[in-house]
Amino acid sequence: MNSPSMQPVALGQSALQVSPICLGTMTFGEQVGEAEAFAIMDRALERGVDFFDTAEMYAVPARAETCGATETIIGRWFAQRPGARAKVVLATKVAGPSRGMPWVREGKGMTAADIAASCEGSLRRLGTDVIDLYQIHWPERNVPAFGQLYYDPAKESSQTGIHEQLEALGRLVREGKVRHIGLSNETPWGVHEFVRLAEQHGLPRVASVQNAYCLLNRSWENGMDESCHRLGVSLLAYSPLAFGLLTGKFDVHAPTDPAAPQAARIARYESVRKQRWGRPEALAAARRYSALAREHGLTPTQLALAFCYTKWQVASTIIGVTSVAQLDEDLNAWGTQLSPELLSAIDAIRWEVRDPAQ
């Protein structure tokens, strides 16, 4: 089954035009071997997905042994597919401060030299001369992220100000190594400050912010949506299926149950279950959305993806898959419309459970 045609969308105020579905690649090199990764990328491009996202720290879950593996696989795919690089809008990310991963970044900061060195490493692994969208993976300063709920000023440890970060990114743009820049896991203040300083000093303006957004985490709608709409910055929504919770595969057996699908990331990796997606409240909410989907003649996956695909807040939805079959299922959900009654029912559940995977 072919999904309806996907019209390209603009990212922020940049010149980038991308497909409204983006192929996330963080499974490549850990759950997904090179041959399957090649097949997934071939199929994505064949079906009109021309926007690929990766990061220097991938594969995930993060390990020293697989750091950079995903970019390397993509680079080999480009090398074996003449002309493919010109067809793909390529996004990658520079890691922020270490967060317990010294093999990615040493120390508490993310200096201008770190940004330059990381870009060079990504270019080399990807086998390309330029990155279309270069994003800061998480803020250099202390922010509540990856499941942390509250900002604590006592934990501030910033070493490199936003102006200096922008200047480093600006040098990469001037050198022709990066076309446009973006952010990830950001806050309203952070987006405003990046835009303010860019406009004040004639530095590159962020085109997009890549944040979690799904039925279990709609925190984007608590201020980020207005900020980014008014500033002309686009949302790249990641984890639309909440690490598999919203596919229905855990509706009977919890991820820790031996009877659950053991190939799934949240079942396979304890480090993933310790994050926001592993909360009991998140699983309970996911089961309610699964039941709602079935009541309306949809699969849980269709409901979760259509929610992101049709929201005005979302420019492009990042889907991560481990097989061509999963990719096709996700792409086939494109064009699914949710009735006003169904959207009201979704909001009613959220009113009760709020954002359990925030």
From TrEMBL:
Protein origin, superkingdom: Bacteria
Molecular function terms from GO: oxidoreductase activity
Keywords assigned by UniProt, alphabetized: Oxidoreductase
Gene3D superfamilies (UniProt xref): NADP-dependent oxidoreductase domain
Domain annotation NADP-dependent oxidoreductase: ranges: 20-349
Pfam families reported in the protein's UniProt record: Aldo_ket_red
InterPro entries xref list: AKR_Detox_Biosynth (IPR050523), NAD(P)_OxRdtase_dom_sf (IPR036812), NADP_OxRdtase_dom (IPR023210)
PANTHER family, A to Z: NAD(P)-LINKED OXIDOREDUCTASE SUPERFAMILY PROTEIN (PTHR43364:SF4), NADH-SPECIFIC METHYLGLYOXAL REDUCTASE-RELATED (PTHR43364)
UniProt protein name: Aldo/keto reductase
